[in-house]
Design goal:
Structural class of chain A: alpha+beta
Oligomer: heterodimer
Strand content of chain A: 15-25%
Strand content of chain B: under 5%
Number of strands of chain B: 2
Largest sheet of chain B: 2 strands, antiparallel
Strand order of the largest sheet of chain A: 8-5-1-2-3-11
Structural class of chain B: mainly alpha
Low-confidence stretches of chain A: 277-295
């Protein structure tokens, strides 16, 4: 039985090991994952201080104190030992204290709301059934099903949804944050080098959920200019276009837009916040400019 | 007249759904046919459905758990098969059906496998361990069982009539609101869990009253067996946590049926639901796990032939876990945008729970140290638990670190973590308890060969099924994916499916074990009432115990009361025999079952007149019971003396 277990474990680890070679936490392409990986390793090592002895002692005690061996030091009435009990309380306390300090430090350092450098490139992300719409206020363009940003600048995503709760993550670049209607949440990311990184919604949202993915293109200067030019050459996203896009459905292919209604993001957030505006999105009359960051 | 109920509720929208419905209906018909064929309806009615005996009720809870485990596992196997094949293809399950399956899998496993299993074990064991005759409120106990059974019935009915929720076992709004989830699915989920949840709250009240006020003379709190301690702590959690769920689901039901706006996207706030849900949800994890810890404590001490190491530490650790479990709910949604201060505080609070949990693991280890360990299958479950659970504990601490959680939240890593806690941590404990106390319940032991095979298959299956999911989480695979396009995921998902296959072999071994054991019951008969050389009072009476458990109430002089008597360290004292009262059988439990089922059914389908009638009926049952002046029957001291064949009686003689 035990043999089978170890064989299963070994096989799994081998397979897992191979598959993990390319996992972002092993080969991080951005600073968030770098720092998280460092925290991950320290935390794992600290915990192994408690975990490894359990694995070893269970096997060792089971073998050494098996009934058939009739160990001479059998002590049926041994109800405790102050010395041992001191250690089994003190060791985890010490480890958790250490981890606690680390958690405090790293949670602040890796707060997703903190920009990862000066002048982040801001993109507004809107979760829809079942696609992501991205607005680029700095350049006035928009895209759906694909995200692009200049690789030499940090990225700040301002996130909301015009449907159920979503959760946006580009695992190679950093963690996730929920997208909720009537609220704006933020996620700061950075790529060390140009590349294409998969991103998607991580909060189940219905039948099209598997398709709610996008490629995040971190582009070098030339690539970025070319991408912007491509977007500028595309058609514009107007109100009717947005309302059609917001209907539940899976995207046939990613789209670029040369322009979008200026107050679109605020209108999407605002329609859920102002009770008077609690009706299907009306982009008329510069919808309310309420803005909360989810905090 | 029939609300939303119409012909379109029948499951003819897909072959698989129709198949599931057919299996459910045929299963029910087969059971009815067998009962008729062997003329067991009378036995079922007299000895089981109308009985207020805590032992019978406990066994019925566990029967529900085992039946629902099969259903929940079939769901799991279907998901594993789907994900193993769904690379760039739709697999064999449509998206909506896949979502129904992951929702029902979670709901069934938590509410209708784990909860009834642990409630059944507590019911069966605790009064025996405490040297008492029954629970404090025997009828309330039967009513709680009826509510749980009604919920389970609604779950099974959802296969045949209408469709189940696709909102996951957590039912987050706004997705679970009527606008996004029309139909009866979420309502099935709401009313099945609400009935079971109310049943659990009432069970908790009953257990607390029993444990705090119904112990044998001499059994101070610090002399209680560890399982009873964990039962007490879990019950306190049930009473304080379950109302959170009841309120949250009730508010959601109001949103759906009457257009309240508690959690809607517009006027309401879904974050409120998520907080309420996890204020129940996190303590719930410890409700599931603490009784399993209690089983491990009994099993490890008994089969190491030693007293439990560090009993006071164990008690304080258990109580600390129970207390701390209320202060960590926010770690289920670090990614909702709270500030770093809030997230870090809740992360650290969560890690603090690892301290008492770690202490408990080491106390079990040092119970084995200098023992004479016998590898009974229940001991094997305990050892498999220890080595596997610490891995889950480690990944739990990782998830408690907000920056790591941001990365693996909502991914397969999270799925792996909570299965790592709930399969080795809770389910293995229940299985250990099942093997350990089975002879107490039925008078014969379970076949060990098949028992050990079951352990082997389950453990190997668990590792294969869930370790790959940790890796998949790091590879960015979200949970609840009906199909995917990343080829790197598929090999790992195939391994996981193989693991599910091994677990299926484990379950098959358990079924064979039960059949073989019943067939060989003459050879496996235990006439001593104490097959394992147990340490606590439940082993001091006959197997199965008489309806009154102990003819004369035992007097306790210390920890491990029965072991002390057997070793001659304590006298086999009892109180003198007196006439006693036992709860009379009552058909009202079945009335609660039927009426609460109808009530839930009516609320699901918006058949308001039926809901009102069933509600009034339930009220009537309560009044009927309240005005029953003779719910007890008397058993005379002479009758008790005649039937007293307990070991304590021998000691007395």
């Amino acid at each position: 039985m035990a043999g089978k277990r170890w064989a299963a474990l070994a096989a799994t680890m081998l397979l897992g090991g191979c598959a993990l070679r390319d996992a972002p936490i092993i080969a991080p392409p951005g600073p968030v994952l770098h720092t998280t990986a460092e925290l991950f390793v320290v935390a794992t090592l600290l915990m192994l201080i408690v975990v490894l002895p359990v694995l070893v002692l269970t096997a060792w005690f089971a073998w050494r104190y098996r009934a058939s061996r009739r160990a001479a030091d059998y002590a049926p009435e041994l109800a405790g030992s102050t010395r041992i009990e001191f250690f089994i309380w003190a060791a985890p306390v010490a480890i958790v204290l250490t981890l606690g300090v680390l958690v405090w430090h790293y949670t602040h350092k890796l707060d997703p709301y903190l920009p990862l450098g000066p002048q982040p490139y801001v993109v507004e992300a809107i979760g829809l059934d079942w696609k992501w719409l991205f607005l680029y206020p700095e350049d006035g363009v928009a895209s759906v099903g694909t995200l692009a940003f200049p690789a030499d600048r940090p990225l700040e995503l301002r996130i909301t949804t015009d449907t159920v709760m979503n959760s946006l993550m580009i695992p190679a670049l950093g963690g996730q944050i929920y997208a909720m209607a009537g609220m704006e949440t933020r996620l700061n990311l950075k790529a060390d080098r140009p590349g294409v990184y998969a991103g998607r919604n991580y909060q189940f949202s219905g039948n099209g959920f598997p398709a709610q993915r996008f490629d995040a293109h971190a582009l070098d200067a030339a690539g970025w200019q070319a991408w912007l030019a491509g977007a500028k050459a595309a058609g514009a996203l107007d109100r009717a276009g947005y309302l059609a896009l917001a209907k539940p459905g899976v995207l046939a292919s990613p789209q670029l837009y040369s322009a979008y209604p200026a107050t679109l993001f605020d209108a999407i957030v605002g329609q859920y916040r102002d009770p008077a505006m609690c009706r299907p999105l009306s982009l008329a009359a510069g919808a309310s400019r309420v803005r909360t960051t989810g905090r | 007249m029939f609300g939303r109920l119409g012909v379109d509720a029948l499951p003819f929208y897909s072959g698989i759904a129709a198949g599931g419905a057919l299996v459910t209906v045929l299963g029910a018909l087969a059971i009815a046919a067998l009962l008729t064929r062997y003329r067991k309806w009378g036995v079922l009615w007299r000895d089981w459905l109308t009985s207020c005996d805590h032992k019978k009720i406990g066994i019925m809870y566990i029967v529900i758990a085992l039946v629902m485990l099969l259903r929940g596992f079939i769901d799991a196997a279907m998901m594993r098969a789907q994900q193993a094949m769904a690379l760039d293809s739709g697999g064999y399950l449509p998206a909506e059906h896949f979502a129904q399956i992951f929702s029902s899998h979670g709901t069934i496993m938590i509410f209708f496998v784990a909860m009834p299993f642990l409630t059944g074990l507590i019911n069966f064991v605790v009064p025996l361990q405490l040297g008492k005759r029954d629970m404090t409120y025997p009828f309330l106990n039967l009513a709680s069982l009826a509510l749980t059974a009604a919920g389970a019935g609604l779950m099974l009915l959802s296969l045949a009539l209408g469709r189940f929720s696709t909102a996951g076992w957590t039912g987050y709004p706004p997705y679970s609101e009527l606008g996004f989830s029309p139909g009866v699915g979420v309502d099935y989920w709401i009313w099945a869990t609400m009935l079971a949840g109310v049943g659990s709250t009432l069970s908790g009240v009953n257990f607390i009253a029993t444990i705090l006020f119904e112990r044998a003379p001499g059994m101070t709190l610090m002399r209680m067996p560890m399982f009873s301690w964990t039962a007490l702590c879990a019950s306190i959690l049930m009473v304080f946590a379950f109302p959170g769920l009841t309120v949250a689901t009730l508010m959601l039901a109001l949103d759906r049926a009457f257009d309240f706006q508690f959690f809607s996207n517009g006027l309401g706030n879904p974050m409120l639901y998520i907080n309420l849900f996890w204020i129940w949800g996190h303590p719930e994890v410890y409700i599931l796990i603490l009784p399993a810890f209690g089983v491990f404590s009994e099993v490890v001490a008994t089969f190491s032939r030693k007293t439990l190491f560090g009993y006071p530490s164990m008690v304080y650790a258990t109580a600390a876990i129970a207390l701390l479990s209320f202060g960590v709910w926010l770690h289920h949604f670090f990614t909702m945008g709270a500030s770093a201060n809030v997230n870090a505080a809740f992360g650290i609070a969560t890690m603090v729970i690892a301290i008492p949990t770690g202490v408990k693991v080491y106390d079990w280890l040092f119970t084995m140290h200098r023992g004479r360990i016998e590898f009974h299958s229940s001991m094997l479950w305990a050892m498999a638990f220890m080595v596997t659970f610490v891995i889950g504990g480690m990944t739990g601490v990782m998830l408690a670190i907000p920056p790591i959680d941001y990365l693996v939240h909502n991914t397969a890593f999270l799925v792996a973590h909570f299965h790592n806690m709930l399969i080795p941590g809770a389910l293995f404990g229940y299985f250990a308890g099942y093997a350990y106390w089975f002879p107490k319940a039925f008078g014969f032991t379970l076949d060990e060969r098949w028992g050990k095979r079951a352990v082997g298959f389950w453990v190997a299956g668990f590792w294969l099924a869930f370790m790959p999911l940790y890796a998949l989480g790091f590879l960015g695979m979200p949970r609840r994916m009906e199909q995917y396009s990343d080829p790197a995921w598929q090999p790992l998902l195939i391994v996981a499916a193989v693991g599910a296959g091994l677990i299926a072999c484990g379950i098959a071994s358990q079924i064979v074990q039960l059949v073989v054991s019943i067939r060989r019951r003459a050879a496996l008969r235990d006439t001593t009432g104490d097959p394992w050389d147990g340490r606590t009072l439940e082993w001091a009476t006959a197997s199965p115990p008489p309806p009154w458990n102990f003819a004369a109430t035992p007097v306790v002089h210390g920890l491990d009361a029965y072991a002390a008597i057997k070793a001659g360290r304590a006298p086999a004292d009892t109180l003198p025999l007196t006439d006693i009262e036992l709860p009379r059988n009552t058909p009202l439990g079945v009335a609660v079952l039927g009426l609460s089922f109808l009530f839930g059914f009516a609320m699901i389908w918006w058949i308001w007149w039926l809901a009102v009638l069933a509600g009034l009926g339930l009220l009537g049952v309560i009044l009927l019971r309240a005005f029953d002046d003779h719910p007890e029957k008397t058993v005379s001291a002479a009758e008790l003396a005649r039937d007293d064949d307990t070991t304590l009686a021998e000691g007395r003689a």
